[in-house]
Amino acid sequence: MSQAEEKEILSWDFAFPLVTNRFFLYDAVKALVWTGGIMILLMAVGFALDGNFGSLWGIFPVLGIILAGFFVMFLLISLIIFGNRYPARFTLTDRAVYWSGRSRVGRKANALAVVLGILARKPAVAGAGMLGAAGDAGRLSWKSVRRIKEYPAERVITIMNGWRVVIRLYCTPENYPAAAGSVRSLAANAARRKKRGAAAGKAMK
Question: Which fold has domain 1-16+87-102+137-205?
Fold first, then answer.
């Protein structure tokens, strides 16, 4: 079912802060940690195949410096290029929550990263651009929601599936109460429908 076929409950645009946003910083650090972990795992496999696993330990300081450099560069880009703000649109329908970035700079930066990565034969750069473009918009059905965390002081609603944070809804001072209430209600309704469906399926067996 497309968004056009669903009943829209609430939709809003909001330019949320970046460097001064603890949620954004937490997500950025978490992404770097995951990146570092994957890099270590890949290098460990490579060293093990070469029979030189002991050399892996010397990579940790270098990798730490590289990741720290990426983090600093990430902060500078957020401040200088994006002006510490990222515009986005959030939409709640009766079936799902949608989000999409509204920054032209962000779209151009992702496209440029892909092109430069391909031309320079650097898969990491191209991959970063592709991941950025993929994460710039998305959809999560209410039946996939497993946990919701609300932060009234920051007017942020965190929505998770079974194992990770999928989207953080950044609300305005005016629409936060309505957004929080709608998220709770829509997720609860989907959970009840799913439970009834599972019960009906068992009854038919």
Answer: PH-domain like (2.30.29)
